[in-house]
Fold this sequence. Notes:
The chain is of the alpha/beta class. It contains 12 helices and 13 strands.
Amino acid sequence: xxxxxxxxxxxxxxxxxxxxxxxxxxxxxxxxxxxxxxxxxxxxxxxxxxxxxxxxxxxxxxxxxxxxxxxxxxxxxxxxxxxxxxxxxxxxxxxxxxxxxxxxxxxxxxxxxxxxxxxxxxxxxxxxxxxxxxxxxxxxxxxxxxxxxxxxxxxxxxxxxxxxxxxxxxxxxxxxxxxxxxxxxxxxxxxxxxxxxxxxxxxxxxxxxxxxxxxxxxxxxxxxxxxxxxxxxxxxxxxxxxxxxxxxxxxxxxxxxxxxxxxxxxxxxxxxxxxxxxxxxxxxxxxxxxxxxxxxxxxxxxxxxxxxxxxxxxxxxxxxxxxxxxxxxxxxxxxxxxxxx
Length: 341
């Protein structure tokens, strides 16, 4: 799979992105079921690191969005990731936005998506995790349903937190997707503080019930100004959040102007996001001053790109769009580059 991907990529890229996504997962799932994927898995040197109280086998993870329903964990585990983040999952199933809703900007090594938290709901998600018997580090990314107003959004996040708690290594609160109307408004100071307070209270109850505390992380947007980043950092620290993921996709089209599909609505990911994401990580690191760890994501296409995120202040990194453009070999490349980070 690792060596063959460059040969198959032109065929995959001839298909609609969501169709190509399904084809790749069918092939990877079949290979894992037959034991072929495990035999072909990269032999990586163990480079463990402790972050958020969790022992990660290496610093490179899969970003949320690729496996929304936790339906492919066994197959994804063969690619060499130190951790997987699945979701975003919502309390009730929802189809997401109308198709087409995902677009490649090949000249820029980028994607635009407006998927809109399409998923099968949290009950199906939890059952998929149970069936997978995946025993690695699992992050679960949670969100609100599209038709839940923001003044009741906390109810949706709490519902998801309760249901995924037993299966999750950590839980990520997604308040930064641009594809659910009004969601990013939850990043505003009052709404953000109220949401964090509610989730931390629920976390304390669940920790006592389950006999273990599952760390909470928050995923933020790359489109925040310096003042907003500083304010958010203060709230993350004051509410004792365990980690922050920087960043989600951007609504900016800087760097892709004039390219086919550049004017499509949705969040932009890939190479054009790299600098913007790294700048947010750097500003966050300064504002947090080591109070909590940062997971860096956005535009990682090489080991050097992953190292750039670590140098900016991230403790871990995640990839998604780079995996689509570069293939599974990118995982090992990043793991090896960060081995001594």
